[in-house]
Amino acid sequence: MVDAELQHRVEQFLYREVRLLSELRFEEWLDLFADDARYWMPARETVAGQPDAVARDGEMAFFDDDKDFMSARIERLRSSLAHAEQPPSRMRYVISNVEIDEMEGGTLDVRCNLIAYQSRLERTEVMYVGRREDHLRPEGTSWRIALRKVILDQTLLPRTMSTFF
Hints:
The chain is of the alpha+beta class. It has one domain (4-152): Nuclear Transport Factor 2, Chain: A (Roll). The chain has 3 helices and 6 strands. The two termini are 26 Å apart.
């Protein structure tokens, strides 16, 4: 259990972060990540008796990026090579149920639910639902995202997914 002030500060950090994503301000969003960050979305598995099964670390993942690779993805999105994002999608992110645990060294283990809505041109709409598990490392009066694990409820994703979570 954390105090109300820390809860509020972390929620404000996360709200700003998803606003940057919604506004396609990817470079500013990327600045919220630590230089040694890991950004990971393991594949979902359908296993009897395990409704929340995901692939283990090192197994199949939709993405498993470091900050340099995330930067390269952003550069591609900004170029004319990202045909699926010309013109850019309209995005909206909603996060809720923010839970925080304090870890050693001041790092925070933060979990929240996520809905990401993507509208593409006038005919395509996709909604992603799941959760995020973050490790926020203290830096100055704020934090840097050292680890982001995204676990979507979907097992099948669009072939042209170019969304950040």
